[in-house]
């Protein structure tokens, strides 16, 4: 089907417009992060103030907060992805009574917002002695991520080639071997996409760390940025530098996993 020059130009105009809408605020934040801290310094001429990042890192204690975020994200990703692969394989490949009802229970984890259960969850965690701990912050997020992860991996396993699974069973392979030695290597794009999404959601989570660590013992990077904003309401350069520091790990991880992420999203779009 041939596309006219007018239609092609219209498509480019629309794409450029939405790209500017998305990238515009990011460009403003980055320019502020490298800008002067006060107007008096700005009159001296154009210069990149890289020292804003070092000052924001020290004053805002982002080293401590980002370490907490990395630990929490690592725990959540390992638990959520492993459990999602196992549950997705069970719902996608195995046939057992009550699978539809159990899968519907998993979907409730996607439908119910965090605000609906955060208060009773806090009292449960406090009774178990898990508040103000890394596990108290990580376990609820892992449970929430398993709900989507199970749905994601079930869609992948249901679209896997049945001939490969049947051939492996004829060769004497059990369910464990079929999963980890055959289906998991083939589904690497889908799994890495799930890893990236889980890491991004966990890294950006604000409410659960705020509620589950009332004393501030386990304060993650987004939470630390919010408290940093309260201390430096006028220092836009330091605030912007802190925002860039908090967003940088997700951007770097996406750059490394970009090819697998796009492949996984495209494969997920044509599956169940």
From TrEMBL:
Membrane spanning stretches: 12-34, 65-89, 101-123, 135-157, 178-203, 237-257
GO biological process: transmembrane transport
GO cellular component: plasma membrane
Organism: Labedella phragmitis
Topology term for the membrane: Multi-pass membrane protein
Keywords for this protein: Cell membrane, Membrane, Transmembrane, Transmembrane helix, Transport
PANTHER family assigned to the protein according to its UniProt record, in alphabetical order: ABC TRANSPORTER PERMEASE PROTEIN MG189-RELATED, ABC TRANSPORTER PERMEASE PROTEIN MG189-RELATED-RELATED
Location(s) in or outside the cell: Cell membrane
Sequence ranges assigned to domain ABC transmembrane type-1 in this UniProt record: 66-257
Family statement drawn from the similarity comment of this UniProt entry: Belongs to the binding-protein-dependent transport system permease family.
Name of the protein this chain belongs to: Carbohydrate ABC transporter permease
């Amino acid at each position: 089907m041939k596309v006219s020059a007018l239609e092609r130009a219209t498509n480019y105009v629309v794409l450029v417009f939405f790209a500017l809408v998305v990238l515009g605020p990011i460009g403003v934040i980055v320019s502020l992060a490298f800008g002067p801290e006060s107007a008096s310094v700005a009159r001296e001429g154009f210069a990149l103030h890289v020292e804003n990042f070092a000052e924001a890192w020290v004053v805002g204690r982002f080293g401590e907060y980002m370490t907490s975020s990395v630990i929490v994200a690592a725990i959540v990703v390992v638990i959520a992805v492993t459990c999602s692969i196992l549950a997705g394989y069970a719902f996608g490949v195995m046939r057992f009574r009550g699978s539809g009802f159990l899968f519907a229970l998993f979907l409730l984890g996607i439908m119910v917002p965090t605000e609906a259960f955060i208060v009773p969850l806090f009292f449960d965690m406090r009774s178990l002695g898990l508040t103000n701990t890394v596990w108290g912050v990580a376990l609820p997020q892992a449970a929430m991520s398993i709900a989507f992860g199970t749905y994601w991996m079930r869609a992948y396993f249901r679209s896997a080639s049945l001939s490969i699974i049947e051939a492996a069973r004829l060769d004497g392979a059990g369910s464990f071997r079929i999963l980890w030695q055959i289906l998991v290597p083939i589904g690497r794009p889908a799994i890495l996409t799930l890893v990236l999404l889980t890491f991004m959601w966990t890294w950006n989570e604000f409410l659960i760390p705020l509620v589950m660590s009332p004393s501030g013992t386990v304060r993650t990077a987004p939470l630390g940025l919010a408290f940093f904003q309260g201390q430096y309401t006028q220092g836009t350069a330091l605030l912007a530098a802190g925002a860039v520091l908090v967003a940088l790990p997700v951007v770097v991880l996406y750059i490394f996993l970009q090819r697998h992420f796009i492949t996984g999203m495209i494969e997920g779009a044509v599956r169940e």
